[in-house]
Design a protein that fits this description.
Layout: E1 3-7, E2 10-12, E3 18-25, E4 34-39, E5 46-51, E6 58-60, E7 68-73, E8 78-83, E9 92-98, E10 107-111
Parallel strand pairs: 2-10
Antiparallel strand pairs: 1-3, 3-8, 4-5, 4-9, 5-6, 7-8, 9-10
Length: 113
């Protein structure tokens, strides 16, 4: 079975740091561009960042550029999102998504003072 499971979310203060992980299984992870998406309460899903299959190309939404870093470990079938300088507006459920838009279980990030 194809599985995508994000974890690492939690409560963090503004300016803080979190690292999210997404464990993938059941498909050729190393052959696939992967994406982090997020959905804030009452809002539409928002693209956050994407990374090419070998990690050579990365793309970021303007809202997170310079603060978030996407990376991957193809040996471990894991996708990462390092989030620095977190803001209140970063509060959302974060989930990983395959290039065919298959998405997994998300993890909640709450930025609050």
């Amino acid at each position: 079975d194809v599985q995508l499971q994000a974890f690492g979310g939690g409560l963090v203060r503004p300016g803080g740091y979190l690292r999210l992980s997404c464990a993938a299984s059941g498909f050729g992870f190393r052959d696939t561009t992967m994406t982090w998406m997020r959905q804030a309460p009452g809002k539409e899903p928002e693209w956050v960042a994407s990374i090419s299959n070998l990690g050579r190309s990365k793309w970021y939404a303007d809202s997170v550029k310079g603060r978030f870093t996407i990376s991957r470990d193809n040996a471990e079938n894991t996708l990462y999102l390092d989030m620095n300088s977190l803001k209140l507006d970063d509060t959302a459920v974060y989930y990983c998504q395959r290039d065919d838009n298959l998405r997994g279980q998300g993890t909640l990030v709450t930025v609050s003072s």
